[in-house]
Amino acid sequence: MLTLFHCMSARSFRPLWTLEELGLPYELRMLPFPPRMHARDYLQTNPLGTVPALYDGEVAMTESAAMCQYLATRDGPTALAVAPGDPEYGGFLNWLHFGEATLTFPQTIVLRYGRFEPPERRLPQAAEDYRKWFLARLKGLIPVLSRRPYLCGEQLTVADISVGYALMLADYLGLAGQFPAAVQDYWARLQTGAGYQRALAAQLRAAQEQGVSTTPAPLVA
């Protein structure tokens, strides 16, 4: 059985969304955010104290984008992954990692030094600089999204899930209104997907059943 450790709307939403798109059975274990502070026993499961953590038998993973690729390929080819040899394969891998390394990373600086640190440790200038840095990097999506609905063609892949989570996080930070038009349309399209909607419902239901706050992690003060 696949087991995913998750905080509301944290990076672990990527593999949750992927699981729902694939229709795979899984166990969702909800944690308060941040778990390294509020669920100390979790350090025995993941010494990093971060989410996500994904367990599949003896397989243990802690990187959200890698989990998406793993889930989309573990049982053979699926529509959520582009196969080696396909002309889109290089772009698929590029966008899969772009979502985390280029788009999510700067937002973690905005969150930490704009919201999560105690007031005396906050760095407003750093938060503002990285907000602008993130928005500037969205320009890289425009040439692709101006000519097709998804990053690798006509169908959703885990590359879209990776980038889509970065847009979800930015939406929580109040940045969606500053997305370029093509990115705004793309984000709106992703949110209408059945798998995305099921993932939202699954985390809310699990949080309520397990007695965990339903406040999204990006909004925890």
Quick description:
The chain folds into 2 domains: 2-78 and 195-219, 3-Layer(aba) Sandwich (Glutaredoxin); 89-193, Glutathione S-transferase Yfyf (Class Pi), Chain A, domain 2 (Up-down Bundle), CATH 1.20.1050. 51% of the residues lie in helices and 8% in strands. The chain is built from 9 helices and 4 strands, in the order βαβαββααααααα.
Provide an overview of this structure:
With 221 residues, the chain is an alpha+beta fold. The chain folds into 2 domains: 2-78 and 195-219, Glutaredoxin, CATH 3.40.30; 89-193, Glutathione S-transferase Yfyf (Class Pi), Chain A, domain 2 (Up-down Bundle), CATH 1.20.1050. 51% of the residues lie in helices and 8% in strands. The protein contains 9 helices and 4 strands. Helix 1 runs parallel beside helix 3 and helix 4 (89-116) packs antiparallel against helix 5. It starts with a strand and ends in an 11-residue tail after the last helix.
From the 3D structure, determine the CATH topology of the largest domain. Answer: Glutathione S-transferase Yfyf (Class Pi), Chain A, domain 2
| Beta-strand content bin | 5-15%
- Give the strand order, joined by hyphens, for the main sheet: 2-1-3-4
Helix/strand-derived category reads alpha+beta
Explain the layout of strands and helices.
Elements: E1 2-6, H1 13-22, E2 26-30, H2 35-38, E3 53-56, E4 59-61, H3 64-73, H4 89-116, H5 124-137, H6 142-145, H7 158-172, H8 181-191, H9 194-210
Parallel strand pairs: 1-2
Antiparallel strand pairs: 1-3, 3-4
